[in-house]
Amino acid sequence: MAKSKIQNLNSPKGMHDILPQDQQWWDKVRKETQAIADSYNFSRIETTLLERAEIFENSLGETSDIVEKQMFVFKSGSGDRLVLRPEGTASIVRSYVQHGLSHLGQPLKLFYSGLMFRKEHPQAGRYRQFNQAGFEILGGDDDPIYEAQLMLVIFKLLNRLKITNLSLHINSIGCRVCRPNYRKKLTDYYKDLAVKLCRDCRRRLRENPLRLLDCKNSDCQEYKVNAPIMLENLCITCNKHFKKVLEYLEELKLPYELDNYLVRGLDYYNRTVFEFFTGVTSETGEKFDFAIASGGRYDYLMEMFGVRQSSGIGGAIGIERVVEIMKTTNVALGLRSRPKVFFIHIGEAAKKKSLVLMEELREEGISVLESLGRDSLGAQLRSSSKAQADYALILGQKEVFEESIIIRDLQNSVQETVPLRKFVSEVKKRLK
User: Fold this and answer.
1) C-alpha 372: how far from its chain's center?
2) Cis preceding linkage at 209, omega within 30
3) Containing H/E element for 285?
4) If you placed Cys at 215, which of 193, 220, 237, 285 could pair as Cys (CB 3.0 to 4.6 Å)?
5) Can you tell me the distance from the alpha carbon of 205 to that of 217, in angstroms, rounded to the nearest whole number?
């Protein structure tokens, strides 16, 4: 009995393929991320795509949008609750603790690039399967110079990717000493407005008042204007820490904007939080502000994993959104295209011989295109044209017998017959 054909060929909602024609943009991001990491002495780390659910439920906060609405959670055959990782930092801290990386020089600078998964509503530059590149500084003391350095690293990376119109928003959300008092003030301010808030904010008012400032619902925006400000309620230690961060940013001449409503949506953050935005003008003239990178200090996350008196700071860029902006603004990639060589055979003897000859070229670092499954000369020439090849190597029955090969310049149709013993060096000459 014949199997029925697959009817729906679309990828799952919010997930996407990265096609060959788009790889040049992704390669550029990967290349520049590696270059920045090398320059600032960040070592690469790769964590598992699957994690135990409690890694995120305990660290991100049960009332965070990620844990409440966005995680892909399922049970393994043995009954373990697993999750496709929704973000990179908690996984890296888990790995740091599990493998005893605190015995390495501290602070330890790590970077990563890889897939994350969230059940978000798909929109421009946001997907349910998406990629992030991030930088983390773990261990050591809580010196504010590391916040400044990490923001500089991300700023430099975005600059290398030719992302313009950047603005850095920064805030402090305090610590366990000063935050409870601020939360009370925030709750007192909002409790009389509760009936006017969106459903999510009414819940946030009960469970996590700081998240009220993070609401994107237009009905709730106006109430933030007169809300208490965290910077006016910092304890002496947090106030001193934040001033130092700003002093370092000013020393680096890294422009920033104080953003009283920036709180970030994860429970593990303390003190400094930040976000990078870029202004983009579409082809229709519309202007948009896109958030393309974010992060903050997470000393409490280290503590949740059992690391006492240790600090952490991290930040990440959303690669899909960065690539989209690069393409929209026609960023010049500066890639030099290598000359392309296409091998054409005519006849069975030439087809067999071509396998060895192409390997000789590849061993010398010359990339060779071919269409060995086609025997027609015309079909192979059409393939070389589609591939936008610069040169064709043509081997027929006569050439096999005479131990020669034809080198044709496909730009001007000039061709020359050369001995097989010299053909690699002759090809090299033309590719210089």
Assistant:
1) 38
2) no
3) none
4) 220
5) 15
What's domain 341-431's architecture? Answer: 3-Layer(aba) Sandwich (3.40)
> Looking at 72-174, which runs of residues are DSSP E strands?
72-75, 81-84, 108-117, 129-138, 166-172
Inter-residue contact 390 to 408 (CB < 8 Å): no
Is residue 151 pLDDT above 90, yes or no? yes
Give DSSP secondary structure letters for 208-269: -GGGGGG---HHHHHHHTTS--GGGG--HHHHHHHHHHHHHHHHTT---EE-TT---S-TT-
Q: Provide the pLDDT for residue 68.
A: 63
- pLDDT tens per residue, range 62-87: 656 666 667 777 887 787 888 888 88
Query: Is residue 136 pLDDT above 90, yes or no?
Result: yes
Exposure string (b/e) for 65-103, b if CB count within 10 Å is 16 or more?
bbbeebbeeeeeeeeeebbbbbbbbbbbbbbbbeeebee
First to last CA, the chain: 58
Provide the residue ranges of all domains of the chain, joining segments of one domain with +.
20-178+234-328, 341-431
Torsion of CA 322, 323, 326, 332, to 10 degrees: 130
Burial class (CB in 10 A: 0-12, 13-18, 19+), 365: exposed
21-49 exposure pattern, b = at least 16 Cβ within 10 A, e = fewer: eeeebbebbeebbeebbeebebeebebee
How many Cα neighbours within 13 Å face the side chain of 299? 19
What's domain 20-178+234-328's architecture?
2-Layer Sandwich (3.30)
